[in-house]
Amino acid sequence: MLAAGLAISAAVALAAACGGSGTVAPATATRSATAAAATSTGASGGSGVQSSSAAQSQSSSAGGKPAGGQDAGAYAAGKSAVVADDVYPQYGDPATDVLHYGLDLKWDPAGKVLNGTATLTIRAAKPTSAFALDLVSGMATDSVKGDGVAGVVRVGDKLTVNLARQLPADATATVVIVYHGTPRLVTPPTTRPDIQGLGAQVTATGAVWAQQEPYGAFTWFPCNDQPSDKALYDVTFTVPDGWAGVTGGAFVGRTESGGYGVYKWHQPDPVATYLVALGIDQYKEETATGPHGLPITYWYLPADADAVHKFTANVPEMISFLEQRFGPYPFPTAGVMFRPEMVGMETQTMITLSTHIGQDDLLHEFAHQWFGDAVTPTTWSGLWLNEGFAMYSQFMWDVAHGQRGAAGTLDDYMSDHVLPADQALRTQDGPPGHYKPTHFASTNVYFCPALMLHGLHDALGDKAFYQLLNDWVHQHRDTNQDRAAFIAFVKKDTGKDYGAYIDAWLDSPTTPTITPDGAGSGPAA
């Protein structure tokens, strides 16, 4: 998510950015999203699939087969170590591990009604006789069927699927939920003025798009809406002619059926619910090729073409900038879905981005593909693992390209422009490792951990620091991680224990004075 525009002081206010300095414009092939012929940008499976023994365990477990005749072993990469969230425990169910979502969605722009069929392949993360899912109360459930389903209970935004018997841990079941309704936003747990609601937002023109961090996917499909449950996705959108349905992953192609366009998407890598993109509008599609032949797609409204192309001209340079520091782009596809509304969200492989924000905000969202998407926090107390890394990447880009008033060295920028904000952020929003739950995604989880990372950078030097972050991402790709795992990894990778330093920067109510080598008294007096 893009950084909050908190005006702490003139030096650190996140004001409108200067233009980017990209030098390489991608070769593009523009076409209307309403092209009748079926197309394909190429689907490819990502790495990170579990071992064959894990897949066999999934396949042989009780509960039947998912839709299409595949056994659950086909979705082994969607297996997660699900836990209750420690900040927003009212969402998600630690007994429910969704391996795969098959979403078949039909959108009526005139009536603003979504009709959906969600086929969920679910693993019992522990012995259970029910799967508790999140689905906004405004969505009516027309039917719920599947392996051993005995009944359904709706209470508020919870949909509990009761089973005829208790399933043992690792058993799988398929649940098919037919539902319909008009998506509605839910109240965000934040003080940020740029986030008025979470979930699927329906526009006056009948379009719909989503921003759903830390929760809100449940406003448009039944899900286990918490970060520790990553899953695979196949999504089909049926929309009127002239409209397009967009999400992340590989765009399999468009066909026509009864005057409607049918858009199919395949996501080969596990995704947390908050990172699933949604956009249905009168989009045009533009294809491009990024570094190393990376397939990229851009989706935008025709009226925004000029603004969009100012962003897309810089994308190859942005990806290369990040790859030089953090290793190869971690997914088989990339893309950006542009919106006229104020939004910047790192939806996996299909960034959701406003056309009215800074060029470096797109760099920030691309950095999240490494930090937050490839490696996702286990619970929301680990938000700093996303935002601190993406913010530090953005600061590095700003210094390298002279954006947002950056001049001089990275050291200069961090000490003169970022450090002065640290104490005010901790006082206002809490330490980044223990932020106030009602202040989600405030600037404290961006700036304060970025300062911590800069201290590590100074201590290790460029080569070792970038290798550390490269190793962190690529050795933990497609997983969920937490603070303890990061501290242990840093110690193993560098041979030095930086735990006290990291803890001080995440936990202290005052700006720490401790240095990476352990010198200093920790929190400032």
From TrEMBL:
Q: Where is the composition biased (Low complexity)?
A: 49-64
The keyword Cytoplasm is annotated on this UniProt entry:
yes
Q: Does the record bear Zinc in its keywords?
A: yes
The record's subcellular locations are: Cytoplasm
Residue span, Aminopeptidase N-like N-terminal domain: 99-275
Q: Which domain of life is it from?
A: Bacteria
Question: Signal sequence: where?
Answer: 1-15
Quote the EC number: 3.4.11.2
Class in the EC hierarchy, top level = hydrolase
Which cofactor(s) does the record list? Zn(2+)
> Start and end of every Peptidase M1 membrane alanine aminopeptidase domain?
319-505
Q: Name one Pfam family in it.
A: Peptidase_M1_N
Annotated region Disordered: the residues are 39-69
Which keywords appear in this protein's UniProt record, sorted alphabetically? Cytoplasm, Hydrolase, Metal-binding, Metalloprotease, Protease, Signal, Zinc
Q: What is catalyzed by this enzyme?
A: Release of an N-terminal amino acid, Xaa-|-Yaa- from a peptide, amide or arylamide. Xaa is preferably Ala, but may be most amino acids including Pro (slow action). When a terminal hydrophobic residue is followed by a prolyl residue, the two may be released as an intact Xaa-Pro dipeptide
Q: Which PANTHER family match?
A: LEUKOTRIENE A-4 HYDROLASE
Q: Which family does it belong to?
A: Belongs to the peptidase M1 family.
- What is the recorded name of this protein? Aminopeptidase N
Source species of the chain: Catenulispora subtropica
